[in-house]
Design brief:
The protein is of the alpha/beta class and 207 residues long. Helices cover 47% and strands 18% of the residues. The chain has an eight-stranded parallel β-sheet with strand order 1-2-3-4-5-6-7-8. Helix 4 (62-71) links the parallel strand 3 (51-58) and strand 4.
Length: 207
């Protein structure tokens, strides 16, 4: 579950409410911009059985920024796939040094197939197909990109994000990605716990 429109206390409360149905809680970039890494720290102290992902979308000074995210309790940190190779390799090494993971966000990457193969060889833990809000508004789906990335990687896990909701998650789950990221479909639902359970049941049924 990804959260981006709440403050850190509201975000932690929501995560606790749905914790039994999710594996990872993602503190998305808007919260980090608004409240800093303290939001990551607060979340890491508020949940017990799930990982905390700091969606920093870093691109430069990556070793330092990963080390800071880890210091504040992040289990997974995001970097942009359009970053320089040296930046990504440094971020991967820094994350692994602390026993943590790096997720490479493929938003705005033009040659998905080539870049995914390169990142796979670099040792990225996750390669995330991401259809951003602006493209979602144009009706773009992440499914085709997901299939493309899955076809060229052998070591990394594949994640997918972009407009996924309880009533659309099944078509994504049938593609069997390693991680499905749901944002508003849970966080903005009238009953987040029920929405999270519905998503979990569908994912488990297709695993």
């Amino acid at each position: 579950m990804a959260i981006d429109l709440l403050d850190q206390k509201e975000a932690a409360k929501l995560a606790q409410e749905v914790e039994e149905f999710i594996d990872i809680v993602k503190i998305r970039t808007p919260i980090v911009i608004n409240e800093g890494l303290s939001a990551v720290k607060h979340m890491s102290k508020s949940v017990n059985n799930i990982q905390v992902l700091a969606d920093l979308k870093i691109m430069d000074a990556t070793v330092y920024e990963v080390s800071q995210a880890v210091k504040f309790g992040a289990d997974i940190v995001t970097i942009l796939g359009v970053s320089e190779d040296a930046s990504i390799k440094g971020a991967i090494e820094e994350a692994h040094k602390s026993g943590k993971e790096l997720l490479v966000d493929m938003i705005a990457v033009q040659n998905l197939e080539q870049r995914a193969a390169e990142l796979d060889k670099m040792g990225a833990n996750y390669i995330a197909v991401h259809t951003g809000y602006d493209l979602q508004a144009e009706g773009v789906s992440p499914l085709e990109s997901l299939r493309t990335v899955k076809s060229v990687i052998s070591n990394s896990k594949v994640a997918v994000a972009g407009g996924i909701k309880p009533d659309t998650i099944e078509e994504v789950a049938t593609e069997k990605p390693d991680l499905i990221i749901v944002v508003g479909g849970i966080a903005n639902a009238d009953n987040p716990r029920a929405a999270a359970k519905q998503c979990r049941d569908i994912v488990d049924a297709n695993s």
